[in-house]
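Deviations from the work plan: none for this task. Representative record:
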Amino acid sequence: MGRAAGPGDNDRVTSAEQQQPETPRKRTGRRPGGADTRRTVLEAARAEFAARGYEKASMRAIARSAGVDAALLHHYFGTKDRLFLAALEVPIDPRVVVGQVLAGDRATIGERVAAFVLQLWEQPETRDRMLALLRTAATNEQVAQLMRGFMTTELVAPAAVELDIPQAELRFELMMSQIVGLAMARYVIGVEPLASADPAGLAPLLARTVQGYLAEG
Amino acid sequence: MGRAAGPGDNDRVTSAEQQQPETPRKRTGRRPGGADTRRTVLEAARAEFAARGYEKASMRAIARSAGVDAALLHHYFGTKDRLFLAALEVPIDPRVVVGQVLAGDRATIGERVAAFVLQLWEQPETRDRMLALLRTAATNEQVAQLMRGFMTTELVAPAAVELDIPQAELRFELMMSQIVGLAMARYVIGVEPLASADPAGLAPLLARTVQGYLAEG
DNA sequence: CCTGGAATTCATCATGCGATGAGTTTTGCG
DNA sequence: CGCAAAACTCATCGCATGATGAATTCCAGG
């Protein structure tokens, strides 16, 4: 099962190769011009982690994709772990969002949640972060635990406060499991026609399922 | 993110260590007594692949767990790929099962599918095979492709024939995505209370969702 | 009983990985 | 201007992995 045509086999070459063979070009030392290398590295890392998961995304590959030596990643981030965490760092506070989306007419809660989630997964940065998490959690207990903790304290707990239904935690988690499964089927496994389906077409079907879990006892 | 306390960190020691330091014990060569070593190896492999996924399950670890030298696995199966496939080989014909479960009263199709699926995942051998596939497909495009093909030709296509609803493929795949997501949340991420929930308690909630996808236009 | 083949292990190779430390070049502060 | 710190690369280490080939031991057919 060697690498043959993996996901993310896009030969990403970001910022390298703007050097003519004219000047002999010293290779080592600080670069002129304050390029935001750190940001470039983080973007390359995010893409690589999303496409291959933590273990298969090598420091060397990330470095190459960022047009940089691998040792530089260690210079900036120390270890691969810390680069991973830095690449996945998410700016928003999920508790707030959960509150906003769940609050409101209970008869249309399915529509609102479905629309919000589908739109989230359409944004490339968010999608990459979530794909990296999902792909990694599948075989890395440490990251699975991270995800479990995040879900429980940042999503389930606030949601259970907002919802006033029996088995709120279980039902909300079943709803989340549908989201996770949709992501797996659509983006990881890529089964058709689901993988290419228009989000707008998915929305009502997903909405009905969410509605079943979060309302209508 | 080194190995710290991964899933499947059970220190499996299957058949090794029944040798006293009494006799000097020659270590090489064929063993006396026709033990079914091949079967032992396959079981160890299945457990390891299920717990860690293809790439993290090392030949050496599988061999150790089977109480055998790693070279023996190559003797029997050639490559790691082929051992993986041999360990996952499934005896039943899914097309038949799909037909049986889907046929019948359309008003209770959700119950039947939910019951069948939940029972499938309760059987350890089936669960191990599916977990190995799922964990591996997350980061291995080759296996993802295998799974995609299997789903399409063995599950979706037969199901679409049986069901006479619009968007049959899409709806059936959404149903499957709920199954996959449930497995991820329950067995891989292990979020509570879902992970420890009684299958009997899950059944009606899952049934309702399935019913929504496969019936009730 | 003898012999060929199957079962099993040992020693070893090449490869890719994360990490480290030393060296070089540029920036920016005083 | 001078110089310390930051940015950046090179060479290299140690480790784990999948794979291979030779060597050893046992079983079964003649």
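Residues 94-214 of chain A form a domain with the Tetracycline Repressor; domain 2 fold (CATH 1.10.357.10).
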